[in-house]
Design a protein that fits this description.
It is an enzyme of class 1 (oxidoreductase). With 353 residues, this protein is of the alpha/beta class. 34% of the residues lie in helices and 17% in strands.
Length: 353
């Protein structure tokens, strides 16, 4: 009978076990921001947090939960209800070498302090010929919440994105929130961080790498959340999620959307958008802000002025908030901000479906 040679009778060596997948956890945007603040307060003693109710009350949205007890009165500071006052204190502290994180309870209230943000923070490095840096972060919820009417529901991405001297970031996921906040705190320029109150309690997957203390996301770099070939969807903040949902709906109809999470409003990563438009030949922008002079308008203009314009097979389409002050009634509010159905309609319009 046929027998194997002795060498082949030996047990074959086992293949090495596959390396375990990187640990992934569900983390809410609220907890991701809290992690970032905690890690940066611990890493750099020049960092401090100030704003209304950020200390003893743990923050109006619990973003600063536990930080006052851990770091004390000098690092986590409750302020009076005076945005111009505490924003001015924060800007002065930054000029003197500290790294303040100034929380607005909502960016609608930053209107009280816009002189400090623009005239005091954004312009000083240029006006001092680079001799005075203003390393400060202005952060808080931006855009529509739920049922808070016109004076609490504006998106200020276009307002602050308009101003040279500022960097402006607008996170969507927990990973965005943590990585961008840490990058903003470490940056030597004033950074405006526009968060979404409606996302604070939403959990997102976060990799082990994203939960490390040295994880940062470079300011000025967009992320492709979904690959596609037929149309480019560009959004920031909460509408990114709507775009991902719309892409799933359209995929069932044979339309593959490429979804770009802008992450940064200024400086804008137009190169990533251009590369996508060259591939898909169609562009739809989505934002919660008003249409006139908006973020989508800027993206469309930049595409029109650049090399990607020649690859467009149809006009770009903008999906925006309605051109009205935000209504209080829920059904009117829902019809004033982009929904998934609006994005699906815009894509079909761009593709002439």
């Amino acid at each position: 009978d046929y027998r194997l040679p002795p060498l082949l009778k030996r047990p074959l060596p086992h293949a090495p076990p596959p390396s375990p997948p990187a640990a992934v956890s569900q983390v809410t945007v609220r907890d991701a921001l809290n992690q970032a603040l905690d890690e940066e307060l611990e890493r750099d003693e020049r960092v401090f947090l100030l704003g209304e109710e950020v200390a003893q009350y743990d923050g109006a949205y619990k973003i600063s939960r536990g930080l006052w007890k851990k770091y004390g009165d000098k690092r986590v500071i409750d302020t009076p209800i005076s945005e111009m006052g505490f924003a001015g204190i924060a800007v002065g502290a930054a000029m003197a070498g500290l790294r303040p994180v100034c929380e607005f309870m909502t960016f609608n209230f930053s209107m009280q302090a816009i002189d400090q943000v623009i005239n005091s923070a954004a312009k000083t490095c240029y006006m001092s010929a680079g001799s005075i840096a203003v390393p400060i972060v202005f952060r808080g919820p931006n855009g529509a919440s739920a049922g808070v009417a016109a004076q609490h529901s504006q998106c200020f991405a276009a307002w602050y994105g308009h101003c040279p001297g500022l960097k402006v970031v607008s996170p969507w996921s927990s990973e965005d929130a943590k990585g961008l906040l840490k990058a903003a705190i470490r940056d030597d320029n004033p950074v405006v961080m526009l968060e979404s109150e409606l996302l604070y309690g939403v959990p997102f997957e976060m990799s082990e790498q994203a939960q490390s203390k040295e994880f940062v996301i470079p300011i000025g770099k967009a992320k492709i959340e979904r690959q596609g070939t037929h149309v480019t969807l560009v959004a920031h903040s909460r509408p990114v999620g709507h775009c991902v949902e719309a892409a799933a709906v359209l995929s069932k109809e044979g339309v593959e959307c490429e979804v770009i999470n802008l992450r940064t409003i200024r400086p804008m990563d137009i190169e990533t958008v251009e590369a996508s438009v060259v591939k898909t030949n169609h562009l739809v922008t989505v934002e919660g802000g008003w249409p006139q002079f908006g973020v989508g308008a800027e993206i469309c203009a930049r595409i029109m002025e650049g090399p990607a314009f020649n690859y467009l097979d149809a006009p770009a389409v903008r999906v925006t908030g309605a051109d009205v002050p935000m209504p209080y009634a829920k059904i009117l509010e829902d019809n004033s901000i982009p929904q998934v159905k609006d994005i699906v309609f815009a894509v079909k319009k761009a593709l002439n479906m």
